[in-house]
Amino acid sequence: MERRRGSPDFLLLFMTLALVGFGILMVFSSSYILAYYNPDYNNDSLYFVKKQAIWAILGFIAMLFTMNIPYTVYKQKFPTIAIGSFILLLLLFTPLGMKINGARSWLGIGKSFSIQPAEFAKLGLIIYLAGLIAKKGDRFRMWKQGLAPALIATTAFCGMVMLQPDLGTTSIILFTAVVIMFSGGAHLKHLGMLCGVASVALIIFAVAAPYRLARIKTFINPWNDGMNGLEQGYHLIQSFYAIANGGLSGAGFGKSIQKYLYLPYPQTDFIFSVIAEEIGFFGCALFILFFVLFLWRIILITLRCEDTFGLLVGIGVVSMIGIQAIINIGGVTGSMPITGVPLPFVSYGGSSLLVFMTSMGIVLSISRETFKKRAQRQEQQLRKLSH
């Protein structure tokens, strides 16, 4: 009879729930003015926070579910998972796909319930690449037998997301895939070729549309056109105002000024600006430190895993979360061009929160199996000593 599975890493579980709880608070603080004065949200100041709370509950259920499934199940089903997530991307270009704010990124019926397939594609590609590399072993370094299928899958996923268009999510998927393939033993020259071709494609894609080119110009100097209310620079300047108003100690929870219909998308893309305004530099430093420790905890759990698949899934998850956080915070602070991706676990967004919490469930499942194997080795050592 198989031994009972080990306990999950409770510290990581607590840190995940703490991030989600903080996110719900900040979604409320950043969105209640916008929701109250907008008839599209029924003039309900709790519109966004109620929906976020529902998604958090669904995410918690998904995390518990995946936490209690041996992660090796995903290793066996990795082609099916990849195909399923890719089909969701294809459905965007059917009547089920919805175009909002110029992007065909949502799948559903009306605004009452919709999902973003690109969020699920992130996790689907991570599992596929980890499963492929674990299955191929040393053969993964060979071009035709291992690396070519990985590059084809990465290109297909990135291409479908780019067609929406969603440059930010495309970048996250691409960089996460590169980290996984590098960790799996891919030759640097092959990854260099991939990065080179991808960089050229992203640059062409970025300058092909006027609004994307405007974002690059805004990043260089937002003050050129930033005082015109409808121009790209306005968004970044309002973010600067919020961060500056926060100062060292912050204006206080709920006391942001810029969320009073000045700052665009305060509950999603620019939620870190509201955080900076309300808790200040010291509060943001503590938040970022907590986030770094959270990522470090995932890395520790991942490195303790002796299975290649589990190791690469953990690397993929921590890369996905870390890269997305860097892109979001870098964009709203003017450190890099704005691409419109949410801050992991914190920004409003049901699909994003559900996928991130599901990913943490898989990492917690890895921690359970690792704990079980460690306990088994300790038990074997005790038996040897007793004899």
From TrEMBL:
It comes from the Bacteria. Pfam families: FTSW_RODA_SPOVE (PF01098). It catalyses: [GlcNAc-(1->4)-Mur2Ac(oyl-L-Ala-gamma-D-Glu-L-Lys-D-Ala-D-Ala)](n)-di-trans,octa-cis-undecaprenyl diphosphate + beta-D-GlcNAc-(1->4)-Mur2Ac(oyl-L-Ala-gamma-D-Glu-L-Lys-D-Ala-D-Ala)-di-trans,octa-cis-undecaprenyl diphosphate = [GlcNAc-(1->4)-Mur2Ac(oyl-L-Ala-gamma-D-Glu-L-Lys-D-Ala-D-Ala)](n+1)-di-trans,octa-cis-undecaprenyl diphosphate + di-trans,octa-cis-undecaprenyl diphosphate + H(+). The keyword Metal-binding does not apply. The chain crosses the membrane at residues 12-33, 53-71, 78-98, 118-134, 146-163, 169-186, 193-213, 270-296, 308-327, 347-367. Keywords: Cell cycle, Cell division, Cell membrane, Cell shape, Cell wall biogenesis/degradation, Glycosyltransferase, Membrane, Peptidoglycan synthesis, Transferase, Transmembrane, Transmembrane helix. Its main location: membrane. One of its GO terms (biological process) is cell wall organization. GO terms for cellular component: cell division site; plasma membrane. This is Probable peptidoglycan glycosyltransferase FtsW.
